[in-house]
Amino acid sequence: MSGFADSDLTCNGFLGGRVQLWQPVRGYRAGVDPVLLAAAVPAKSGETLLELGCGAGQALLCAAARVPGLVLTGVELQPAYAALAGRNGAENGRQIEIFEADLSELPDALKQRQFHHVIANPPYYKAGAHSQSQDAGRRVALGEETPLADWVSAAARRLAPKGYLHMIQRADRLPDMLTACAGALGSIEVLPLAPRAGRAAELVILRARKGGRADFRLHAPLILHEGIRHEQDGESYRPEIRAVLREGAALPWPKQP
Fold first, then answer.
1. Domain for residue 4, yes or no?
2. Largest CA distance in the chain
3. 253, part of any domain
4. Residue 204 — φ and ψ, nearest 5°?
5. Are strands 48-52 and 96-100 parallel, antiparallel or unpaired?
6. Could you tell me the residue range of the domain that residue 202 belongs to?
7. Which residues, in sequence order, are CB contacts of 115 under 8 Å at separation 6+?
8. CATH number for the domain harbouring residue 231
9. What is the 3-state secondary structure (H, E, C) of the chain?
């Protein structure tokens, strides 16, 4: 895939304008999911953060805006998006080391390193489980070509001891994630994300720790929107979610009892 021309891009603000992201007019465009993922990571200044499948760099930049001093690394399969991630990092004043690679064939320079945190927003749909997009970038971003188990395996290998994986996925892929974690990661916690009260969770964020031994925890769903239905135009996010999306706040992850 060739690089994007400026005429093929728009610049969009995230976290109330703290992050300015160039992304294609047509193709995969970042939404709120990577923002929520980045906000779930309990990172500290000076720690290292790797994103598998970083796209244009939205999650990395959102994490860096919340936690100054993070050391950022991204892996991206599609050359045009990898280049865009580098550009977005530079224009936001953040240094991101980008590896253009398939996560199943990472370069040796990356295989020799370990990270405090790994994040991933893998394609949501199994191969053949959704209609194929005509745009190649969107098709790769949404449709699974590399098995989900390989994403978890790659993350586990790149984590330092006691390091954290955070992954956001469709709720119906949770069994696949849990199976992939078996024997590789522990201290698993799952935070369901429900659009409204009384509605089933559509997404989940999985947190797992390398070498973790704590019991599995399934948290109560985090409700994203006010009310039981969409009744009017405009934003309806609950205050704590609005703080994440507009102010760069940490996601309200349930505390240990």
1. no
2. 53
3. no
4. -135, 150
5. unpaired
6. 9-247
7. 48, 49, 50, 73, 158, 159, 160, 163
8. 3.40.50.150
9. CCCCCHHHEEEEEECCCCEEEEEECCCCCCCCHHHHHHHCCCCCCCCEEEEECCCCCHHHHHHHHHCCCCEEEEEECCHHHHHHHHHHHHHCCCCEEEEECCHHHCCHHHHCCCEEEEEECCCCECCCCCCCCCCHHHHHHHECCCCHHHHHHHHHHHEEEEEEEEEEEEHHHHHHHHHHHCCCCEEEEEEEEECCCCCCCCEEEEEEECCCCCCCEECCCEECECCCCCCCCCCCECHHHHHHHHHCCCCCCCCCC
Beta-carbon contacts of 77 under 8 Å, excluding residues fewer than 6 positions away, are 53, 100, 101, 102, 103, 140
CA distances from 189 to 85, 157, 210 (A): 29, 19, 13
CB-facing half-sphere around the CA of 243: CA atoms within 13 A: 8
In a domain, 213, yes or no: yes
- 113 C-beta neighbours (distance < 10 Å), count: 13
pLDDT given for residue 26 in this prediction: 87
**Model confidence, pTM:** 0.90
Q: Which two tokens stand for residue 154?
A: 């790659």
Report if residue 252 sits inside a domain.
Answer: no
Per the structure, the count of domains in the chain is: 1
Calculate what percentage of the chain has a pLDDT beyond 90.
82
Over the stretch 200-250, which tens digit does the pLDDT of each residue have? Answer: 999 999 999 999 999 999 999 999 999 876 656 567 999 999 999 999 999
φ/ψ bin of 157: left (φ > 0), alpha (ψ from -120 to 50), beta (otherwise) = alpha
